[in-house]
Amino acid sequence: MKTILVTGANGQLGMEIQNIASDVKKFNFIFTDIPTLDITNEIELSAFFEKNKIDYIVNCAAYTAVDKAEENEKLCTQINNNAVKNLVEFSKEYKIKFITISTDYVFNGKYYIPYTEESETSPNSVYGNSKRNGEIVALSYENSIIIRTSWLYSHYGNNFVKTMLELSKKHSEIKVIFDQIGTPTYAADLAEAIIEIIRFSEDVEFKSGIYNYSNEGVTSWYDFAKAIFRITKTNCKVKPIETKDYPTLAERPHYSILNKSKIKNTFNLFIPHWEDSLSECIKNHKK
Ligand SMILES: NC(=O)c1ccc[n+]([C@@H]2O[C@H](COP(=O)([O-])OP(=O)(O)OC[C@H]3O[C@@H](n4cnc5c(N)ncnc54)[C@H](OP(=O)(O)O)[C@@H]3O)[C@@H](O)[C@H]2O)c1
């Protein structure tokens, strides 16, 4: 039976893979996070790969604090770039198929047509830059898949959905940016897609390269907040504001719609609409 190592497994995406792993009888999983396998530590990694026979790595580990990254470039680079290099080196040595996750922040968001995998990258933040450099490192290995995603949320970890629901407990009205357009991604859907990609690799072929993945549809943070309150029947007003009225340390892409034709056509994936997935996440959260 093939073994999948999931790094950063206590994060949003890692937890969603853990959630479905028991239903995926075809594979054996090893879930690790900083206390069990720090991917910046080459000595730990060396001992781990000597001891465990791994067929696939799904790298969910990352430095994801986008604003803090502006003042913490060294650590951000260490995790999102140098550590990816470590994993790629061990993947080459042990002939492991490598899957890692990237972001819409590799784009500057000044474009207005959905980004394909070939669109020119131009990150405008430390985080985006570190993720782009991680992509370049992964692309140096012929057995790498890079999945770019956007606006990730789940009922684990810190994310926009949980922040909105927390804020609504303290405020009757909140202000949310309307001039940043993108697509939310339910981490549970992405987790399913990753397992499908590995199944496909086993049954057909490992198709290296970059792939975009988010839910279907398009929205703004303002409309996303409205949908969260509509679905949860939360009585909280949402006031639309401009990006300039909510300054952040890191610049965000104004436009970050990902074209998902490649991932859908290659792996024959069905991707749910973001509002359906949001309802699903909220339903699961209540359980
Ligand atoms: N969140 C988003 O909106 C978003 C959007 C687009 C793309 N992405 C990408 O999607 C992927 C998954 O994101 P996510 O939201 O699931 O991230 P997350 O919740 O922040 O999880 C990342 C996990 O990696 C762990 N980690 C950090 N440094 C590590 C190290 N040196 N060794 C091992 N584990 C380490 C973290 O531990 P600690 O928490 O203890 O640091 C955390 O458990 C990432 O590649 C991210 O860049 C995320």
Index terms:
287 residues; two-stranded parallel ribbon; 6-stranded parallel sheet; Rossmann fold; alpha/beta; binds NADP nicotinamide-adenine-dinucleotide phosphate; 12 strands
Please, could you describe this protein's structure?
The chain has ten helices and twelve strands. The chain has a single domain, classed as NAD(P)-binding Rossmann-like Domain (Rossmann fold, 3-Layer(aba) Sandwich), CATH 3.40.50.720. The model has no long low-confidence stretch (mean pLDDT 97). It has a six-stranded parallel beta sheet with strand order 2-1-3-4-5-10, with helices on both faces. Strands 6-9 form a two-stranded parallel sheet. It has a two-stranded parallel sheet with strand order 7-12. 42% of the residues lie in helices and 17% in strands. The chain is α/β, with parallel strands linked by helices. The protein starts with a strand and ends with a helix. The chain is globular, with a radius of gyration of 19 Å.
Strand and helix layout:
Blueprint: E1 2-7, H1 12-21, E2 27-31, H2 42-51, E3 56-59, H3 66-69, H4 73-94, E4 97-103, H5 126-139, E5 144-149, E6 152-153, H6 160-170, E7 173-177, E8 181-182, E9 185-186, H7 187-203, E10 209-212, E11 219-220, H8 221-232, E12 237-241, H9 261-267, H10 274-286
Parallel strand pairs: 1-2, 1-3, 3-4, 4-5, 5-10, 6-9, 7-12
Antiparallel strand pairs: 8-11
Helix pairs in contact: 1-7, 2-4, 4-5, 6-8, 8-10
